[in-house]
Amino acid sequence: MNKLLVALIAGVFATAAAAQTAAPAAPAAKATAKEKQEAVKSTTTQAVAADNPSGSAPVSAASKAAPKALPTKADKQKAVGSTTSAAAAANTSTEDAKEAAKRVAETKKDPKALPTTADKAKAVTETTKKMAN
Known about the structure:
Elements: H1 2-20, H2 33-51, H3 61-65, H4 73-91, H5 94-108, H6 117-132
């Protein structure tokens, strides 16, 4: 019986050790770094050729020489400011602001539940007495 247990435990350890080792890779499946680089380069070349069948450069010299839409920093800031103000105006309105101010004014006049510390202490002692009974 002891020999059977020893053989069983040894088999479990052998199985666990075999499961943790990596399977050897097939030598034909390994690709070198140069082969991978060539594959990526050819795929990229094919994709560029499909997008640009004329074979010319993606950015032509004429487009580089064309004047920019917003050449100065001031022009860019002006465009951003107008876009931001238009978006802010679309998201909020004066009516919403008036309604919010009205709600704040109404709730500001509400009395507080326990305005002083003496009132708070009294409420705590009353609650404690109720819990004890």
